[in-house]
Amino acid sequence: MSTPLYHGGDYNPEQWLDRPDILKRDIELMQAAHVNMITVGVFSWSTLEPSEGDYQLDWLADIIDSLWAAGISVDLATPSGARPHWLAEQYPEVLRVTPERQRRLFGQRHNHCYTSPVYREKVRAIDQQLARRFGRHPAVKMWHISNEFGGECHCPLCQQAFRDWLKERYGTLEALNKAWCNKFWSHEYTRWEQIESPSPLGADTDNGLDLAWRRFVSHQSIDFLKWERDSIKAVVPEAQCTANLMYHFYDIDYFDLAKEIDLASWDNYPTWHKGSDEGKALDTALMHDLIYSLKGKPFWLMESSPTMTNWQDVSKLKRPGMQLFSGLQAVAHGSDSVMYFQWRQSRGSFEKFHGAVIDHSGRADTRSFAETCQVGEALETLAAVSGTGRPKQAAIVHDWPNQWALEDAAGPRNAGLGYWEELQRHYNGLRKAGLAVDFLNQDGDPAPYGLVVAPMLYLLREDFAEKLRRYVENGGTLVVTYWSGVVDENDLCYLGDAPHGLVEVLGLRRTEIDGLYDGETRRCVATREGGTATGSTLCELAALEGAEAVMVYDEDFYQGLPAVAKHGFGKGTAWYLATRFEPAFYDRFYAARRADCGLAPAWPVPLPEGVYANRRDRFVFVQNTNNKPVDLMSFVLPAYGTAVFEDGKRIY
Ligand code: GLA
Ligand code: ZN
Fold this sequence. Notes:
Blueprint: E1 6-10, H1 20-32, E2 37-40, H2 45-48, H3 58-69, E3 73-77, H4 85-90, H5 117-134, E4 140-144, H6 156-170, H7 173-179, H8 207-235, E5 241-245, H9 254-258, E6 263-268, H10 277-295, E7 299-304, H11 322-332, E8 335-340, H12 367-381, E9 394-397, H13 400-408, H14 419-432, E10 437-440, E11 451-454, H15 462-473, E12 477-481, H16 503-506, E13 508-515, E14 522-526, E15 532-544, E16 548-553, E17 562-569, E18 572-577, E19 579-581, H17 583-597, E20 611-616, E21 619-624, E22 630-631, E23 636-637, E24 642-646, E25 649-650
Parallel strand pairs: 1-2, 1-8, 2-3, 3-4, 4-5, 5-6, 6-7, 7-8, 9-10, 9-11, 11-12, 12-18
Antiparallel strand pairs: 13-15, 14-15, 14-16, 15-19, 16-17, 17-18, 20-21, 21-24, 22-23, 24-25
């Protein structure tokens, strides 16, 4: 039997064990809402192991059995996202230490050291209890490892692990000192023990150290995830594992993390109805596409709020139709599930006002419950979409070490580089041109894409520069922006002409870069047709060495220097964008590139404003981000409406 599209969400029955009537009612309501996948166990540790070694799993067995009897599968979480009091009390080393070297008190979640052998051992013990008891239960289709990995710990154990990791990476202190430019300010190390993680009390402006620490934190978090995964797989080798990822996440290199899990999933909490819904839809779409790209295959939408999100500045309700739009948007971009946080709203504590399918009234005749049912029905209709892939058309390079290094440097604009804003502008232009967009890191392969965009690729690895060069030589179209090819993988500036590794490909070289104040702009004009554009944020100055200037700066002392340049290299074409343009520039630019590259948009004719199409294999989704109906000639899409076609025939 093929896998359906999953519908459900986080459920914390341990909060309701004294209310069997509610537990029973939940199952009936889940069935009514077409729910077929429920996540249990997130943050359940104190109920599963109330004191050390006292495992109480019967309540969970009852819940899993009742869910399964009702035809509902289970995504079983390990409870390591938060620990019980006894664990922190008996073993204080499990609690995190801040960058100021202060041991935290018990409380919050994610407040644990990823290195602590005691924490690891206790986590393995509870994970293996769960795996032995439930690993072969037919309901358990997925393991949800911990919850939203993130953060860092500066305890002595982590310091030691950091030094060991550095020894492995650099071999000798001499090599490390050189790679980090430690003669600067006399920061050379003479003993490994002198190395400390960055701290506001100590070194926090040493870029080489900072970048190495970011890599280490990412490595150590992933190592902890592997520890949990392997604990489960030691008992149930065929177990499928996921980890729920987050928006614009910084701490962990998700491309590295994704190699260690079977399925990528993420938690999506857009601030809908704040500013333009179209803008928010594009922002969300970028994230769906990034998560899809991590494994190059369908992912799960693990969490989303059916109504409001209580930790945001303002908890705004989703307008009618938005829950359905938002769920189907995930599917259109490659999700095989629509899941919520959470099924039933908790009575007390921090999340008592977070949106849930069932609120404190316990009623099923609510607006959100009705919309949840509509999502469930839609996912049943669209079941055949499950598992289908997306075309490879355009790719944007997004690389964690690049972002870490880029944002850590002092200059050229400490007032904000707007890295995500830069990615988003390219992304929006590509989407408005109707293209499918993947994301690549520097381990990725540009070859299958018709168009590759490298925005602000400040840290450019030699091997990736070489891949880009070959890509263009073989006929690819590459777009490179300002502030690319600046440093190597240790954050040491390349010597010689820049953008390093791409001078020949782009047919030009950077001479200087000018930081602009907020609100400052530079007018640019086309050299042939007379169009104009506006640069902002950073204006790079370049000398042409074979490329043709398509637009030039039209003011300031750099008037006449290239703002947009084009260069034929081998069988392909390289484009250079010297500054950050206004959003409309990218719409025109990528519409033209799509045409040059001969890439087919997901929908054959131009779509009305705010309407987007996505292809998954033989299925095409068309969605209206407007809060008003739009006429597409052959059909009308209501406000926030979705239509789905299979081989051209409308099925939804
Ligand atoms: C995160 C967590 C959930 C819950 C939600 C609330 O995504 O994973 O446990 O706290 O936020 O939005
Ligand atoms: Zn630690």
